[in-house]
């Protein structure tokens, strides 16, 4: 894992990327973050957007974890009823 | 269009929900409708439900007696989680770097998300630029395949990954809320 990480250091390289492109990408990202979505774009630093992005992805991962647990518990009883419902959802 | 989550759990309500469930899926209200095509949500839902019903069938014949034991629930939970991420990656297809990386991770049984607790990189964190680099590194570890992306692709892929993860959560919630409630452990 550590060898792979050292390879990742070559980021931010290619010279063709303009500041506008980065600002555009950052503001697109900001629009997806419930915590800072409604703030004015120029009021939020890029570093804050990156921070909130990490937090948001982590919380989405946690939600998937929780939902997987919930779904696995839902499967644990009354198999036939569950199977019928899942089939009907698949129709 | 009624939201699936608001529907009462009476038997009558259930039967009507289930018959209209699949047809109502594409018209679900979404704040991401512009960026997340509805067909993606439906495709993920279909793939995931198929995998979910397979997990259901797989455990019923042989290990019926132990199916509610905590270890089998943990195992099933892992399989469901893997199925969810694999279904999402397959629904998105190979056009996205994150979905290719995610599918590779699922197929090779690599850890989906790297552990968050890591020793700090020395030298990073001095000043604003250091902080930003540190955060970019964190983001790289959270987005599948992020370690090998340049900064611009990382931002673009992250936006798409968040949209798809959100759709994944919505679909899983919809399914969990449609199933009859069970005794909690």
Question: In short, what is this structure?
Answer:
Helix content of chain A is 65%, strand content 0%. With 91 residues, chain A is mostly helical. The N and C termini of chain A lie far apart (43 Å).
- Count of helical stretches of chain A: 4
The percentage of residues in β strands of chain B lies in: under 5%
Tally the helices of chain B.
6
Q: Would you list the SSEs of chain B in sequence order as H and E?
A: HHHHHH
What's the shape of chain A?
A: elongated
- The average pLDDT value of chain B, as a whole number, equals 72
Distance between the termini of chain A: 43 Å
Contiguous low-pLDDT stretches of chain A (5 residues minimum) are 1-14
Oligomeric form: heterodimer
Order of helices and strands of chain A: HHHH
State the helical fraction of chain B: 55-70%
Task: Sketch the major β-sheet of chain B.
Answer: none
Please tell me what the overall shape of chain B is. globular
Helix and strand composition category of chain B? mainly alpha
Write down how many β-strands of chain A occur, each being a DSSP E stretch of 2 or more residues: 0
Helix content of chain A: 55-70%
């Amino acid at each position: 894992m550590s060898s792979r990480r050292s390879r990742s250091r070559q980021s931010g390289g290619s010279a063709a990327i303009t500041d506008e492109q980065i600002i555009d990408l950052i503001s697109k990202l900001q629009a997806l973050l419930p915590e800072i979505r409604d703030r004015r774009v120029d009021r939020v630093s890029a570093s804050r957007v990156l921070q909130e992005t990490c937090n948001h992805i982590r919380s989405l991962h946690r939600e998937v974890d929780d939902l997987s647990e919930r779904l696995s518990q839902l499967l644990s009883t009354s198999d036939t009823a569950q199977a019928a419902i899942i089939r009907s959802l698949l129709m | 269009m009624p939201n699936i989550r608001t529907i009462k759990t009476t038997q009558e309500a259930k039967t009507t929900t289930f018959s209209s469930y699949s047809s109502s899926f594409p018209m679900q209200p979404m704040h991401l409708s512009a960026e997340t095509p509805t067909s993606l949500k439906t495709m993920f839902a279909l793939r995931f439900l198929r995998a979910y019903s397979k997990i259901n069938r797989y455990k019923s014949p042989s290990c019926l007696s132990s199916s509610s034991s905590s270890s089998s629930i943990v195992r099933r939970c892992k399989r469901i989680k893997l199925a969810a991420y694999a279904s999402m990656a397959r629904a998105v297809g190979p056009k996205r770097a994150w979905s290719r990386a995610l599918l590779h991770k699922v197929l090779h049984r690599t850890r989906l998300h790297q552990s968050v607790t890591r020793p700090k990189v020395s030298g990073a964190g001095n000043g604003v630029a250091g902080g930003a680099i540190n955060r970019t590194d964190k983001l790289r570890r959270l987005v599948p395949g992020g370690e090998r992306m340049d900064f611009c692709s990382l931002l673009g892929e992250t936006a798409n990954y968040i949209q798809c993860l959100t759709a994944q959560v919505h679909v899983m919630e919809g399914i969990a809320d449609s199933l009859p409630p069970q005794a909690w452990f």
